[in-house]
Prior knowledge:
The protein is of the alpha/beta class. It has 2 domains: 1-110 and 296-362, 3-Layer(aba) Sandwich (Rossmann fold); 119-293, Glutathione S-transferase Yfyf (Class Pi), Chain A, domain 2, CATH 1.20.1050.90. It is 41% helix and 22% strand. The protein has 10 helices and 14 strands. Strands 7-11-12-3-13-14 form a 6-stranded mixed beta sheet, sandwiched between helices. The chain has a 5-stranded antiparallel beta sheet with strand order 2-1-4-5-6, covered by helices on one side. A 3-stranded antiparallel beta sheet has the order 8-9-10, covered by helices on one side. A hairpin with a 4-residue loop joins strand 4 (67-74) and strand 5. The longest helix is centred in the middle third of the chain and has 39 residues, at 169-207. The site of magnesium ion has 4 residues, from helix 1.
Amino acid sequence: xxxQSLTTSNFRNFNYANIKCHPQLNFIVxxxxxxxxxxxxxxxxxGHGKSFRTAKIENLINSSNDHFVVSVKDDQNFQLGVKxxxxxxxxxxxxxxxxxxxxxxxxxxxVQVITPETFRLFFGGxxxxxxxxxxxxFHVEHNFVDLWRDFRKVLLQRNACLKNKxxxxxxxxxxxxxxxxxxxxxxxxxxxxxxxxxxLKQWLSILLPDxxxxxxxxxxxxxxxxxxxxxxxxxxxxxxxxxxxxMFGAHKFDVKFIHQKLNIEQILSRGQxxxxxxxxxxxxxxxxxxxxxIAPIILIDDIGAELDTNSRTVITSAIAKLNCQLFITxxxxxxxxxxxxxxxxxxxxxxxxxxxxxxxxx
Length: 362
Ligand SMILES: Nc1ncnc2c1ncn2[C@@H]1O[C@H](COP(=O)(O)OP(=O)(O)O)[C@@H](O)[C@H]1O
Ligand SMILES: [Mg+2]
């Protein structure tokens, strides 16, 4: 699947924008503050129901209006739209029908984003790594959505017990399903992470060939990998009682990328970290593509930042092999050299003060 056209109104500094998208490669160039990131943000919003830049959805509404609308038409003729007003009301539409939730849109769109901030978030703590892996699982493992929803419910109940010191039988009751669901999720994740690792190697061999074969993925499932969760909970009952929340379980998983016994962020430059995250994002995109025939969308904001010409050249080779739709922003066309293909099989958009125009290839 790819986005054929995108329409936004009152989103950030765009009063109205309507573009026809290229099924593979879309470039968006413009000065600082012109609206490039905002355009990517509008696509991201459809896929996630939130922004990659702010937790406050209000900020996305054009300051002189009371609501925004984003809608896309995909290549299977689905019309997907979201309207959000400044009173927190959502309206989600799929083919004109408005009985939907944000999560229904997410089933149609697999949107991943890479920004100059991504590596800081990704290597800064487990939260972003968890979010990343679970986005892949959501699209690739069909039973993951249900498993995760059930787990979340039990986790909330169990946390409520621990917080309110309701121990004994009631806690034991939640422990049973908490352990069962955690073990099930851990198994699905382990399988997925192995697949991701295999796919990652292929893309690293293009983007970071020097280290491609030396990277190992270390998956920690959220409690000691060699123990039953029930045993871990028993051994830590007192600590959990003191802290008042679930310290072990499927919500505490992490994945680390190791190179010669070190976390890779300790040895890679920022430019290399960006290439690494590109390889990882593309690897996940490919798994998503294969499993569902939903073509994933990758948004790359400010691609020029931190990348030299050599890095941009290897990105060009990776892009040529990709099965997904890309939206790439840069300050100007020079910052995109040599990523813009010689053949005119792409679309180029220029943004100026919230007005977007397509530049026809010469
Ligand atoms: N809610 C809003 N209403 C109107 N303008 C906004 C809103 N939010 C941000 N802007 C403005 O939109 C412009 C575009 O920002 P951005 O998309 O980050 O630009 P770029 O990525 O091209 O540098 C900025 O000048 C910003 O001040
Ligand atoms: Mg920007």
